[in-house]
Amino acid sequence: MHHKREQWFVAIDQGGHASRALVYDSGGALIDSAYCEIETLEKPGNIVEHDPVAFVASVKQVLSELAEKLGKNLERIKFGGLACQRSSIVCWNRKTGEALSPIISWQDRRTGSDLEQYSAHLDLINEKTGLLLNPHYGASKMRWCLENLSDVAKAEHEGTLIMSPVASYLLYHLLEQNPTVVDPANAGRTLLYDFKSGDWCKELLNVFGIKKTTLPTCVNSLHDYGSLVLNGQEIDFKLCTGDQSAAVFYSGIPRADSLYINAGTGAFVQQIQDSLFENANTGLLTSIVYKDKNRRLYVKEGTVNGAGRALQWYAEKSGRLDFEKHLENWLNNYDSPPLFLNAIAGVGSPFWASFDSHFDRECGVEEGFVAIIESILFLLQSNIHLFDDFQRIYISGGLSNSTLFCQYLADLSGVTVCRQKIHEATAKGLFMLLSKTDSSPEIEQEFMPLQNGPLSLRFACWQKEMNRILS
Predict the structure, then answer these.
(1) Helix (H) or strand (E) holding 193
(2) Domains of the chain by range and CATH?
């Protein structure tokens, strides 16, 4: 029996593919959850968008499904938190909350050719934000909206415009108080946030021509955001952060001697740092993942854009939408697949490039899937070798369900890979931060590195091909 006065927590995880809401008891056991896929609209010209109204509706839908399932137990939920896809932005009216633009996804690269004009400011951008100039991040998308959407320009003129990461837009629509605020992890993906001062950066606002008054107010990750009311029940909303920023906390405070990989739509490699560090010229990013009154935590971060996203792209192209249940078999069956040069959604760290994705030779569909899985591993390893002082890798996310994926990662990196028992790393991380609990990772399986000559050889050939394309 649950103790009568026990406090429960609700975690909202809004990702590029779906909205989820999960309820945990005070010990971190999952009580119940609800899930709703969201539609992604893709158009020529590297345009990737979501409909803002449907987007908010999907989150409200999972919350009301959850309330339905919990019935009387709803009143046990005391605290709530939100984790959101980080680099997606939307423009809206601060008085009415009405969206003035589509949600422009983190995967959207429409502004790729506009970035040249900012190239004199690369050092300033890296020093203030920990990031690199890239079309995935918010600033150039906001600029695009100001220049191309008359509603946005008009609202700016009238003083009613807010341009923000989607997290802020969601908080406004979910909470009674309609706040217009942003947390460090989401603000940190706009290219406008100085993560040392914890506020918008004057120089960068000037560089991109964006007024501070059109941006939400910067607050801490742990903050009194307002109240979420579900069926008359008030829930204190205490936490907002990015999806990857939450994921790294799924077993409490991450260990400095470990790398954490969350492999979903994109795949992210993170290593926690207590203090700021120099990251210049590695191609890796520095991100602030958590901030409260007493502490700030940073990570060194590598990003692979074309992870689950690349498999999905190929599934749609080839018509094999049932690929997930066959992947393990195919990985077993094809031991010399072609090389896939993977630039799906643009190549992230450490290369930061764009080209047309392609196989290096003709191949069948099943072999193609194997080549794509290997390309994800190769992109991950291209990041992993840039990190220092780590003894193991913890992995979570959809791709970690593949035993061979985990084994090959161990083989390539030469380090033990620990697969977590937990699959919803982002939501569990929210729970850990909200409840201020710490535990040690529950490891489902450890993969020791083995000699894998053929895989290492293909990796070397792949690196050669990448260098050739990039030069």
Answers:
(1) strand 193-194
(2) 8-243 (3.30.420.40), 252-421+441-470 (3.30.420.40)
